[in-house]
Amino acid sequence: MGITADSMKRLSPYLRPGINMLELGAQNTYYNPHYGRIAKDVFEEMLISHISIDIIEHQKCVQCDLRELHPFNAGCDVVTDFGTCEHIDGSLYIPYVNIHKACKVEGIMVHENPMTGNWRGHGQHYFTEKFYVELAKVCNYKLLEVTSEPAM
Predict the structure, then answer these.
(1) Distance of alpha carbon 6 from its chain centroid, rounded?
(2) Which of 50, 63, 92, 117 could bond 57 through an S-S bridge, CB–CB 3.0 to 4.6 Å?
(3) pLDDT at 119
(4) Cβ(55)–Cβ(73) under 8 Å?
(5) Cα atoms in the 13 Å half-sphere on the side-chain side of 137
(6) Do 110 and 81 meet the contact criterion of CB atoms below 8 Å apart?
(7) What is the pLDDT of residues 121-131, one digit of tens each?
(8) How many other β-carbons are positioned within 10 Å of the β-carbon of residue 142?
(9) Of all residues in the chain, what percent are helix, strand and coil, respectively (each to 5)?
(10) CB 81 within 8 A of CB 24
């Protein structure tokens, strides 16, 4: 999906120089003044220690298949998923274990994806607000916000 102006508005309070950030997918920005840029470049200009991972190596990301367990060490202050997990085929258990392992205790996770029923055929999974509420309960996460809004 990429990072929209609304996405950045939601994420900005948690961004500051020196934090560690993991971005799922090699995202682009879809807001001015950075429209169309590789998100990694924008975050690094903000002096954020940033790693983007994707199943294929492109746009300065590290190749990583989230369907396989990885030795993440809970070192990330912020983990973002701006439209990556929806494309993972098969079970989402291992991908969400990886996300959990990557995020620090009291770190921030941001998940954005198309609403169920929108963009039919776009991905493998469609998530509902209820999914995120239940995920937070099961994982003992503090849920900061759940919203629905039009994409782009």
Answers:
(1) 14
(2) 63
(3) 67
(4) no
(5) 6
(6) yes
(7) 677 778 888 99
(8) 7
(9) 25, 25, 50
(10) yes
Query: Alpha helices, DSSP H only, in the chain?
Result: 5-11, 39-45, 93-102, 129-139
Helix, strand, or coil here: 30?
Answer: strand
CA 103/CA 92 separation, integer angstroms: 17
Closest CA to 1 of 78, 84, 71: 84
Beta strands in 17-126 (DSSP E): 20-24, 29-30, 49-54, 62-63, 76-82, 103-112
Show the tokens assigned to 123: 């991905």
Q: In this predicted model, what pLDDT tens digit does every residue of 89-118 receive, in sequence order?
A: 999 999 999 999 999 999 999 998 877 666
Reported residue count of the chain is 152
Q: How far apart are CA 42 and CA 23, in angstroms?
A: 12
**For the purposes of burial, counting CB atoms within 10 Å of the CB of 53, is it exposed (0-12), middle (13-18) or buried (19 or more)?**
buried
pLDDT at 96: 95
